[in-house]
Design goal:
The protein is an all-alpha fold. It has two domains: 5-199, Helix Hairpins (Orthogonal Bundle), CATH 1.10.287; 245-284, no CATH class. Helix content is 82%, strand content 0%. The chain has six helices and no strands. It has helices at residues 5-29, 34-134, 139-199, 208-220, 227-244, 246-270. Helix 1 crosses helix 2 and helix 2 (34-134) runs antiparallel to helix 3 (139-199). Residues 91-128, 163-190 form a coiled coil. This is Chromosome partition protein Smc. Keywords: Coiled coil.
């Protein structure tokens, strides 16, 4: 079972009393009288307790810094986890597009083969129709050959359009695959950077909680404070200044200085210029000693 703060403080006081008693025994053994020993004990005990308090303050500051470090490490690990899901999604999209491009390449090849076959059929139908004209075939036969030629031309046109569409689709998928691969590289770099940052975090900033609990001591001891800690300490000092009346004193002093500045400006406007024989030698005095003219 952990000790309560009261039990812990009691142990500190007891150990301090033991230390003072040991020091008193040494003083007695060296010939000190009871009064000197009592004075020694009364002087040493408060200082030892204060020294222990300072030690505890330093330990508390170390614990607060450790808490801030653990907190920032947890946030960095969470950032890594948040980047993992988009990275995995980018990898899956890249894999899907790779397969889609492969399928599109195959479809384009098949469409080109069919377009070439259709073009060849159209060429053969055109030659057959030309030979029919040369051989003076009957009108019915020429009409049949012309119909075949037109049908072949229509098929060739459709197959060529299909091949061009397959090419366009393949090119579009390849562009998307290029973008997806860049996305994978970017997200992988972000994950690596976040992982390195989580493994070796930079200087841990002082949290608002630490600044609230230990900021004033750190300020008075000349320890560095970041922007957040400085803002918290400034709020604490402002609140303390208001509760102790210091803020009113500072405000009153500022008002007095402002009024004095306005009065001095008005005085300077009404007085002769500096160096003028009628300018008072002591302008701030209620009774001016006029400097006699020179020359």
């Amino acid at each position: 079972m952990s000790e309560t703060p009261t039990q812990d403080i009691s142990k500190v006081i007891a150990s301090t009393a033991e230390l003072v008693e040991a020091a008193s025994n040494v003083a007695r053994s060296n010939g000190a009288n009871a009064r000197d020993v009592e004075w020694f004990s009364d002087t040493l005990t408060p200082n030892l307790l204060r020294a222990e308090a300072v030690k505890r303050q330093l330990e508390a500051g170390t614990l607060l810094d450790r808490a801030d470090e653990l907190e920032i490490r947890a946030k960095l690990r969470e950032a890594v986890l948040q980047l993992d899901a988009p990275f995995e999604a980018a990898l899956q999209e890249e894999d899907r597009l790779v397969k889609a491009v492969e399928a599109a390449i195959q479809a384009e090849r098949e469409a080109e083969d069919e377009a070439r076959d259709a073009a060849e059929n159209y060429r053969l139908a055109t030659e057959a129709e030309r030979e029919g004209q040369l051989r003076k075939l009957s009108a019915a036969d020429e009409t049949a050959l012309l119909t075949i030629k037109r049908a072949a031309a229509d098929v060739a046109t459709r197959r060529q359009a299909t091949a061009e569409g397959a090419k366009t689709n393949r090119e579009s998928l390849e562009r998307r695959l290029t973008a997806a691969r860049q996305e994978v590289r970017d997200r992988e770099a972000a994950c690596n950077a976040a992982s390195q940052l989580a493994a070796n975090p930079p200087m841990v900033p002082t949290s608002a909680v630490t600044a609230l609990l230990d900021g004033v001591r750190r300020l008075m001891w000349g320890l560095p404070l970041d922007e957040t800690a400085t803002a918290v300490v400034a709020e604490l000092i402002g609140a303390a200044a208001g509760m102790t009346g210091v803020a009113r004193q500072i405000k009153a002093k500022a008002v007095d200085e402002h009024d004095r500045e306005l009065a001095n400006r008005a005085f300077e406007r009404n007085m002769p210029a500096k160096g003028h024989p009628f300018r008072p030698s002591n302008p701030t005095s209620p009774v001016f000693a006029v400097r006699p003219p020179t020359g």
